[in-house]
Amino acid sequence: MRARRFWVSATIRRSIGVTLLALCSAGLAACKKKPPAPAPEPQLDDETVALTLDPAPSAAPSAGPVVSRCREDSSKSFLIGEVGKARGTEEEDDAGPDEDDEVPAPFSVELGEVRAENGGFTLSALRSLKGQAHALLALVADEAKSGKLVDLGAVHGDPDPPAFALHGADAVVAASDTDAGGGMLRLGLVRDLAGGAEISWGQEITGVRRDSTFALEVSGDHALLTYAAEVSGKIRVYGVLVDPANLKAKLAPEALSAPGADVDSPRLALRKGGYWLAVARSLDAPKPQKKKAADAGNDLGEDDSLLDIGTRRIEVQKLDEKGKSISSALVVTAPGARPMTFELAAAGDGGAYIAFRADDSTPGADGSALELVHVKPDGTFQKLPLDGDANGTGTPSLLVDVADPSKVWLTAAGENGATWFGRVGDKTTLAADGAVRGADVIAIRGGQFLLARSKSTAAELSVVQCHE
């Protein structure tokens, strides 16, 4: 079960999270939830059914001392990458990296999605080898005391960590890459992931938006890959069914979004009999800022912003097991909203949860409050209240406890190095804990929280035991 899509260094998320999100391309410009290089740890000092939601008041920070809910064994951790590796100390191939290759600097590890299955944790990542960005899968023991890295080869351009989904003992992989025509996705299968881990590659999908997310899930004997591509000047979301037993078979992508406005940033979650698909749709173009006179100074008005991403909305629809739409798009954001980032996760009742942060502020400023919506199996929606600290600039994450899928947790970066998290319910309370300070919670299983911390240019993984 997927626990999380993309990991962002806790320090970076708190300091420039809004900046990165606001620098998406125009219209929908597809906010690619791409993590920046790790930084040092912080110092401790249509056929659309629209739902109109009343704006909720901003949640106030909880008062009083932080009660510890977690306990960490600091002696156990697993490291991806090398600590203190200086630029240029690695032996390079004779030809060196391609001129167009963009390697995360300085040789930093970039984590992708995480799945808590098969008695441990499996995650994707990018790292640098001999001056080139390489995609990999990492298998981490349940207590993070050991692990195994499976190299998937070099990737080029400005790639994301690969998407993957477990299929028995194997892993279906979609690796982000670049060819002469632009962005592409390479489909592969890692056989016997925990054993010999042999990778074989199949078809490639070209013309993929490089500034958009893509999603992969397995249901039954097939996998569904969703991605965004530009056709005739408009961005649309496509889905393609993949047979892990025959990756060389010809692919037949189908549009999952209606033509017209730009649509991208697909997210997938499993449901009984198929999938949930969530996308972001652009409703109007960004508005250019008025040019100020030379002597007017740099002050912005109260309602001004350095960037205006335009109005957008998040839409959700049901797909069957073959990846075909079987419902109208359902709008889960209020009219006039500007959701800059969102997450989707399956709910224990067969529905789904969507967490998002709407913001149109100056880059680097605090974001608006987090919002959480429960999509019920019958297609109705309920906005869930959040207590505690729901403000800040952190990207929200929804983590499903694989040991008990009815337990879903919401987490986001707070202020001063804090990470706020809480179990989703009719009333969700977000609170910090000293044991996860300066870290990201990236997966959960049976009360074990997998944490990721930047350690120089590496990523350090550890486990804490937490209670509700």
CATH architecture: 7 Propeller
- Give the CA-based shape: globular
Beta-strand content: 35-45%
**Can you tell me the residue ranges where pLDDT is under 50 for at least 5 consecutive residues?**
3-65, 86-97, 99-106, 289-308, 360-365
For the residues shown, what is the average pLDDT?
79
Global structural class: mainly beta
The strand order across the widest sheet is 1-5-6-7-8
Could you say what the CATH topology is called?
Methylamine Dehydrogenase, Chain H
Rg for CA atoms: 21 Å
Largest sheet: 5 strands, antiparallel
Describe the oligomeric state of these chains in a short phrase.
single chain
Domain count:
1
- In DSSP terms, counting alpha (H) and pi (I) runs of 4 or more, how many helices? 1
The helical percent reads under 10%
CATH class: Mainly Beta
Distance between the termini: 21 Å
Explained architecture:
The chain has 468 residues and is mostly beta strands. It has a single domain (2-90, 103-289, 304-466), classed as YVTN repeat-like/Quinoprotein amine dehydrogenase (Methylamine Dehydrogenase, Chain H). It is built from 1 helix and 32 strands. The chain has one helix at residues 10-22, and strands at residues 2-4, 48-50, 70-72, 78-80, 110-115, 120-129, 132-141, 147-154, 163-167, 170-179, 182-191, 198-208, 215-219, 222-231, 234-242, 254-255, 263-271, 274-282, 312-320, 329-331, 339-346, 352-358, 370-375, 381-384, 386-388, 397-400, 408-413, 419-423, 428-430, 440-445, 448-455, 458-466. Strands 1-5-6-7-8 form a 5-stranded antiparallel sheet, with no helix packed on it. Strands 2-20-19-18-17 form a 5-stranded mixed sheet, with no helix packed on it. It starts with a strand and ends with a strand.
